[in-house]
Amino acid sequence: MGDLKQIAVAVVEGQAALVKMLVDEALADGTTPSDILYHGLIVGMDIVSARFSNEEFYVPDVLISSRAVHAGMRVVRPLLLENFAQIEGKIAIGTVAGDLHDIGKNLVIIFLRSRGYEVVDLGIDVHPEEFVEAVLLQKPQVLGMSALLTTTMPIMASTVKLLEQANIRNQVKVIVGGGPVTHDYSKSIKADGYAADARSAVNLVNKCMSQEVKSWSQLY
Amino acid sequence: MEPTVLDSISFEVNLEQFLKLIRVTDKPGYAERATILVAEAQSIARPKAMYREAFIDERGNDYVIVDGITLTSRVLRVNLNDAYRIFPYVATSGVEIEEWSKGIEDMLEKFWVDAIKEMALRVAIQTFLQHFKENSYGGNTSSMNPGSLQDWPIQEQSKLFAILGKPELVGVNLSQSSLMYPIKSVSGFRFPTEVNFENCQLCSREKCPGRKAQYDKDLYKEKFA
Ligand code: B1M
Known about the structure:
Chain A is built from nine helices and five strands. By secondary structure, chain A is α/β, with parallel strands linked by helices. In chain A, strand 3 (142-146), helix 7 (154-165) and strand 4 form a beta-alpha-beta unit.
């Protein structure tokens, strides 16, 4: 496990080349890709997000560490993909129609990707029909919506309704976030969860996925 | 009155400050790449702004007609009680830097470039404000922006653009959802006023970085109801 600790430290320090080298070495030593991901890369990223929450790290630091995680992820991901059960899950996320604010959404995406999730970025100005289409085509376990304008929040409610009308509401967990959005609002529109920031978005997705994994195990 | 178009705004990034902002001063490899991006952005970016003077024709309870176009908002109506003209404006990072930035794939570099684009927008806003003060109205003014308050939603953007006339002169277009492209653009109007007004005074959003004024929970009732 010594090497895994080094990987985590290199992630915190944002040393992408070193992370890649350490991951290659760990694999050569027989460490499993899953251990490298969960006990090396993700441990490092968890430290980074804790420091971000404590305001010891700022957004640019998180991005540099995230890049280091990706350098390692690029090596282990194909190996993990060989075993479907080891893949974390898929999230589709976008900024709702009529809204362009994407800095927060992009940060959430970076955190999720650094946690090993596959994220489909639907971009900005995403209409309810486009969210529904993404669920049908991409089959994510979680659908995320971000809104920064008070006036665009109702698009979230319309999307949930459209998912119901399309009879696919139970196929996907819906999570919401963004400046004016609150926990109460998320409940009022029957979303599955609300996150106030990027770190809690990851925790929320983890929760959604652990419920999802239970149902997968029933399937397989 | 013809709009004033400011389209030869120079754009220079303070490199030292920028490298500090993105926290790479002690990371030579990153600093080098960021320096290259700044140089490219500076040579490409053409921040722009335009504004004009427009006159109030009529006022109702919750609307004001400006140059024949009805702007609907109670807050706007009250704010313009003593004004007889407004100055609609749009400022933008410019389409040139927006197009160039589309070629950047790396997420870290995307973030840096986003910050550079926002700097270009800020330069456009500053240039507009200075030009406006020196050439159009030197007295005290405040600003309102479509979308900043529920009372004056983003859908009013197209009316503001119609009053402004030809925003395409600075390369800004409105989408069907009333969003401006390039993304790094802001719109609004300035109006002469003795009492400063900030949208933030009427917005109760918590944890809002960059707030320009405290939320005043009684203000709407006292002044705008
Ligand atoms: C799915 O699950 C999840 C979970 C968590 C999620 C989540 C999803 N999404 C977000 N989160 C959460 O995690 C993130 C990370 O921790 C957090 O994301 P945030 O986005 O909250 O935080 C980011 C990391 C940083 N925060 C931000 O990036 C937003 C900051 C503020 C200042 C802001 C910015 C930067 C911008 N803006 Co705009 N802007 C404002 C914002 C005021 C504010 N203080 O919030 C706001 C949102 N803007 C507003 C407006 C009106 C506008 N803006 C406009 C323009 C801009 C800029 C271009 C200058 C820039 C855009 C940058 C961009 N590409 O996103 C205009 C539209 C432009 C256009 N192209 O059409 C314009 C319409 C104004 C105009 N007429 O010109 C206001 C909305 C008012 C309202 N009550 O609804 C506003 C509150 C400013 C204000 N006080 O008036 C959490 O919310």
